[in-house]
Here is the input.
Amino acid sequence: MGLRSVAYGLYERRLAKTLDPATLPRHVGVIVDGNRRWARAAGAGTEVGHAAGADNMARLLEWCDEVGVEVVTLWLLSTDNLSRPDAELTSLMPIIEDLVSRVAATGRWHVHPVGALDLLPDSTSRLLKELDERTSGVQGRTVNAAIGYGGRREIADAVRSLMKEHAARGTSIEELAEILDVDHISEHLYTRGQPDPDLVIRTSGEQRLGGFLLWQSAHSEFYFCEAYWPAFRKVDFLRALRSYAARERRFGT
Here is the structure.
């Protein structure tokens, strides 16, 4: 073990000791950005970057488990990403399937898919549904696997689901318009029943949401990190928690 590794280990432990459990987020959303750029910088192929990113996501869940984060939303694949070259998507899907399978196998997380599963390959969609059902009995820890996810698509799907539900009850459009409020839409989101994200982390230096949890992040705190996702370390995660804990949350007031 090198001197730098020892120093970071000591720093991590010191950071962890300064965190008050009462100030930590219940729900952390993560925009895992920079896999491809990390791979290019390392002189490796895109598939290597995605595989390294998946391994780091598994580590992130261990860190979240250690500090007591209850819900983690990982943006693995956006609806826009589905337009990438077929060769990249063909290599990426098995990596995603392996990751969610490994997370489910720990028995510590309910793996809940969020996104337009109908846009994914049948095998991926089936696996996500199976893992959701298989891990549904896990209490207190949820991983939202955002795959084929887009914030605008989610809101549109929520409104569509709401309208279908009321149409089945015989509610007219005019009647629905009279009673419609934000709670009605929230009840039809992919994350219904969950707390909204307290903290959203984005890596790779980009400082934008890009459509991530548009509805749910109205009062979220944001933390942007320069590191590409595969290079995101536990110390970076602890720094994000420290930054979050130091903020005065106003919730729009």
